[in-house]
Amino acid sequence: MALPLYERAINGDDDGLVRLTPAGAGAATLIPDRAPAAGEQYRFHFDMTKCIGCRSCEVACNEQNGNPAEIHWRRIGEIEGGTYPDTLRHYLSMGCNHCLDADCVKGCPVDAYTKDPVTGIVLHSAEACIGCQYCVWNCPYSVPQFNAERGVVGKCDMCHGRLTDGLEPACVNACPEAAIAIEIVDRTAWRIDYSSADSPGMPAAGHTISTTRITLPEDAVQTLQRVDAGRIRPEHAHLSLVVMTALMQAVAGTLVCALLRQGAGRGLLTALLGVTGVALNISVLHLGRPAYAWRALKMWRRSWLSREVLLFGLFFAALSAATAMAWLGAGAQWLSWMAAALGVAGVMASACIYLVAARPAWNMVHTPLDFLLSAALLGSMVTPLWTRTDGAGAAAGAAAGLWLANQAVRLVRLSRSERFEERASAGLLNTSGLREALIASLALVAMAGALSLRGDWMAAAVVALGGVLLSRYLFFVSVVPLNMALTFVRGGGR
Amino acid sequence: MTALARLKRALGIDTRQCDYTYERDARFGHVSSSRVAEKWVKTTCGYCSVGCGMLVGVKDDKAVAVRGNPEHPVNRGKLCPKGLSEHHILTAPGRAKTPLLRKNGTLTPVSWDEALDTMVERFAGVQQKYGADALGVVGTGQLLTEEFYTLGKLVQLGFRSRSYDGNTTLCMASAVSGYKLSFGSDGPPGSYADMETADVVMLIGANIADNHPILCHRLERDAERTLIVVDPRVTKTAMMADLHLAVKPRSDIALLNGMAHVLIRDGLIDSTYISQYTDGFHQYKEFVAEYTPERVAALTGLSEETIVRVARLYGKARAAFIGWTMGVNHSTQGAVTVAAINNLALITGNIGRAGASPFSITGQCNAMGTRESGFTSSLPGYRKFEKQADREELARLWGLDVERIPTARGLAYPDIIEAAVAGKVKALWFIATNPAVSFPNYSVLEQALRSVDFLVVQDGFHPTPTSDFADLVLPAAIWGEKEGTYTNSERRVSKVNRVVAAPGEARADFDIFLDLAERLGVREELYPGWTTTHDAYKEWQRVSAGRLCDYSGISWEQIEEESGVQWGGARLYEDGVFRHEGGRAKLYNVPCEPFVEQPTSEYPYVLNTGRTVEHWHTRTKTAKVQLLDTMAPYAWLEMNPVDARRLQLKPHDRVSVISRRGSVKNLELRITGIVAPGQVFMPFHFAETNSNLVTLGAFDPISREPNFKQCAVLVERFVTK
């Protein structure tokens, strides 16, 4: 990726930024003839009344950026409504909306995103990116896309390299109907009234204050609906995260339970340290660029992902110290308590990662509850293997009951939700394969509760871990992200 | 990739950054380095007949990018998604690279010598035993005009078979026949520019937003112009219209006659034009008198007010334009529907003036080239088989005995197939076409392919569903690998240039034809001194001189300089002189008949077929362009919610479409108000779900074009067994 615009402006001798001379006839009306002034930025304008759904913009974008066929930084959506013959069918064309409050920028743990101060373009640096895909989860338009071939994310940069040369972005240039243009918007005024960013088939613009202005046909809002609603597919399972979150919750829960029972001996501490080491190493495999995992610490002031990495890192350090002290015979209970506090904080930070508006089925109180209750469940069933067991059965049984109750309430709320994405998540959980997995996960936890009441701790712990892993797997695959409306075939795949 | 490189990639130390850099292309500015060219070759798009000018970027002898030619008058720098990704076809997998001959049941690589010797020998054997016309040849609209001209002579004069036609009969034959009926000759009278000049544009059965997207910018919303779209389906194009007429399938003739009725009744006709330039007005007037708005309303499903309003819009227009494509042509009544369109233009004088024209929007990139030079449904240069003077003129130009020129047209495409089934055509040669997907009523076609003694398939790609049946596969060069001309819908002759070399042993069709002529011993007689397509062009210039399609003044150099030249100028018939004997156009009485296979209680739905913007024809090309294929990877069936409720079907259910002839299984159901209750629609591009398993083998008696657009079907839930 070339230098961000502002650097070129600051570094001086490139006057393209201020000149922005339109190249050739026709271009003049489609891109601004000046750079944005202070308080302004560039934005897309999409005129739905002109678009004929030819998809030239989509192909031109891939050609411009040399992207593989399965990645589309600009996408087309179909929206329909009305009754034959007064049927309405229209198209959406969308790249990045270069939002005023871009969630991709806020969430990024490595500061790979820049909201360019001059143009307002949301730029992404493939060099800085570690491929954690947190931006993919955060964007309500599913704009950033993970390029598995590269291990990093990529997105529309409004062809800023062309804009600085006074050339139209590829999509603007390709559109045979001149339906896409670049405009200048006053950020303050837009923050007050961004209503023309809203459109049928688009998530509400208010989440992140999309800057794209959309000209709608008359009567469009009442009638037009997305045509891809029936084609919801399971999301990526992120197996390394399934394992990491479940194990970290087990470790943190066990440490707390063991401390409460005065039983955090050196054997247990060593075991927990080993599991933590394994879990944290597995989590790194989630990244497109595991070698740069350490960079994830960078944005701890802003990103929950950074905070999770930081807290689990500190947890590992504290636990290591506590274990070492235990082996040295210098009992340092306070160190173990500190580790436990960091562990629980880490679990909470972990949960906060998933509280993103763009993924409604995650963005519920049930997510942190699930993470804490999973810690309690696993902790209460693992601890008795190492400590005394009086009263442990009741505690473990209660944890299992609460865990199940949380899951049940979540399912009911999802299926009765007014939000399409939440209902669709419930719908996914009711499809063949996932339904069986869901039943199995609930049954396993119930069984673990029963086993613990009987005092069969080894079996209870193993079965509970199985239930939590399965449930966490479902948590990842069944989430339905906010997205723009896509085409009927949703970009393909059988 | 080495183990070390793989490890670096897995760890993320390497992010393939080198594949994702940007550079400044000298001509087109900041772009992915992979699309930066060393040189740009000017050429014309090889998909549809809009005829967009483009520049193909070449680097290290590879095509790396495509750009619309900003100076080209047709597209002014714009391209559709197929054009924008066309360079990928030159590096696509699946190309035929070596001649393959079936030996002991398997296609085996052979030398060109063995391939062509065998071909000539086998064809000769069949022709000696069963007669010259027992060799059937089916061409295409995808070759160069120079190649069509060469092939026509080769088949008709070299192989001496009259069983020669093109896949253009599946496409534009009805327009050709309709023009001949009304004007005495083929030849689209107008230009694209007329769409911009006209104050009323009526599109009938033409979904240009999907099929000819680069024409749409000429119809941008404009207070001065009314766009009327006649289509039973709410197409993308219907959404562009000021007035969408959702007629019942195949009731367009009634609408056209009803409009004529109102025009005559309200005095909105051009009596001077009628009396000076047309024949048959009185009988026509009497005939359309029966097409009262009331009757037409019942036939079309439109309101009487709408019919009167549309007629008055057309009649009062300063200049009115009617464009059509396959909704009109793909019918047993296609040719006469074209005549009915021409009637309207003639009685209002909406022809031969700026903005005023009946206008067929053609399908393939060079369907026009084969219509003019091809020697299939007419002699080269729009000459008539049955006209002695035309035959004599050609014989003189070619230095041949006039007896060598056939006196009647041979079998048309569907009749060649039927003759093959009947055992009368015993050898078949398909060139750049894929009938196993594109020909209606697949089971009959399959029988034909299996019945012949020797089947040759000449194509750029192998395997294709058709080449699977072949006894001999000839690997051919494709668009971008050879030089010559295409002629587009508006008669614009454009240059197509060689960008890269053909892969493997693949050869230009032109070279294959000359080589065959050599082996037949007719090369010097038919192609004296020819070595390049330019030699063919020069002879074609002489042969077309003085004809309606006169290329004699259009040199290759001029075409390159001017980005294409229209033969006949901006429009034909400006002088009102038509090509019938006596120079007058004819008005025809065109009755509105119901389409052949009406729905019944057993087969209750009318199946309509059509295209999507992402694909071209049978996807032999666009399925190989990964980007296009991922955008529309499979077919679907559109059904109205009313019908879906009745059948208790849900969106995305898997369904089968069943007709009396066969069934298409396992289609994804799209429930949508785009189609009318009682009608269903599916795209025809996909071999995997081939719509021609169910379509009807009924053909226009005049043009021989198949009735692809309507047949009666049943829709059932698909159950995996």
From TrEMBL, chain A:
Gene Ontology CC terms, in alphabetical order: membrane
Transmembrane segments: 241-261, 267-288, 309-328, 334-357, 369-386, 392-412, 433-451, 457-480
InterPro entries referenced in this protein's UniProt entry, alphabetically: 4Fe4S_Fe-S-bd, 4Fe4S_Fe_S_CS, DmsC, ET_IronSulfur_Cluster-Binding
Domain 4Fe-4S ferredoxin-type, residue spans: 42-71, 120-149
Single GO BP term: anaerobic electron transport chain
CDD domains: DMSOR_beta_like (cd16371)
Molecular function GO terms recorded: 4 iron, 4 sulfur cluster binding; metal ion binding
Pfam families in alphabetical order: DmsC, Fer4_11
Gene3D superfamilies listed in its UniProt record: 3.30.70.20
PANTHER family: ANAEROBIC DIMETHYL SULFOXIDE REDUCTASE CHAIN B-RELATED, PROTEIN NRFC
Full protein name: Nitrate reductase (Quinol-dependent) transmembrane subunit
UniProtKB/TrEMBL annotation, chain B:
InterPro entries recorded: Asp_de-COase-like_dom_sf, MoPterin_dinucl-bd_dom, Mopterin_OxRdtase, Mopterin_OxRdtase_4Fe-4S_dom, MopterinOxRdtase_cofactor_BS, Prok_molybdopt-oxidoreductase
Keyword Iron-sulfur: yes
Ranges for domain 4Fe-4S Mo/W bis-MGD-type: 38-94
GO cellular component, one term: membrane
Matching Pfam families: Molybdop_Fe4S4 (PF04879), Molybdopterin (PF00384), Molydop_binding (PF01568)
An example Gene Ontology biological process: cellular respiration
Alphabetical list of Gene3D superfamilies matching this protein: 2.40.40.20, 3.40.50.740, ADC-like domains, Dimethylsulfoxide Reductase, domain 2
SMART domains: Molybdop_Fe4S4 (SM00926)
GO molecular function: 4 iron, 4 sulfur cluster binding; metal ion binding; molybdopterin cofactor binding; oxidoreductase activity
Annotated keywords: 4Fe-4S, Iron, Iron-sulfur, Metal-binding
Protein name, entry field: Nitrate reductase (Quinol-dependent) catalytic subunit
Originating organism: Acidipila rosea
